[in-house]
């Protein structure tokens, strides 16, 4: 469920950004531009998953904690 919501939110946010930027530049938001935005959201989702996998899960206090 976590991964599904990541893809959904990524698609919503990137599509919103795509709409706003195309409106500012006075460019129509047609099929190919919208599709490129969806592909970018998938790339963004994969990048977030890779960053999540690389970062350590322990808090800084637990990593350096010695008793």
Give the arrangement of secondary structure elements.
Blueprint (H helix, E strand, L loop, with lengths): L1 H23 L6 H24 L5 H4 L4
Helix pairs in contact: 1-2
Largest pleated sheet: none
What is the string of SSEs from the N terminus onward?
HHH
Structural class from helices and strands?
Answer: mainly alpha
Mean pLDDT: 85
**Helix count from the secondary structure assignment:** 3
Q: What is the molecular shape?
A: elongated
The total strand number stands at: 0
The rounded distance between the terminal residues' Cα atoms is 38 Å
Unreliable parts? none
Helix fraction? over 70%
Strand portion: under 5%
Based on CA atoms alone, the radius of gyration comes out at 18 Å
Task: Provide a quick synopsis of the model.
It contains three helices and no strands. It has helices spanning 2-24, 31-54, 60-63.
Structure in words:
The protein has 67 residues and is mostly helical. It is 76% helix and 0% strand. It is built from 3 helices and no strands. Helix 1 packs across helix 2 (31-54). The termini are far apart. The mean pLDDT is 85.
């Amino acid at each position: 469920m976590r991964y599904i919501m990541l893809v959904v939110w990524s698609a919503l946010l990137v599509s919103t950004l795509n709409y706003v930027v195309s409106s500012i530049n006075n460019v129509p938001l047609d099929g190919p531009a919208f599709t490129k935005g969806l592909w970018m959201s998938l790339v963004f989702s994969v990048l977030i998953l890779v960053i999540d996998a690389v970062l350590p899960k322990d808090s800084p206090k637990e990593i350096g904690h010695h008793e």
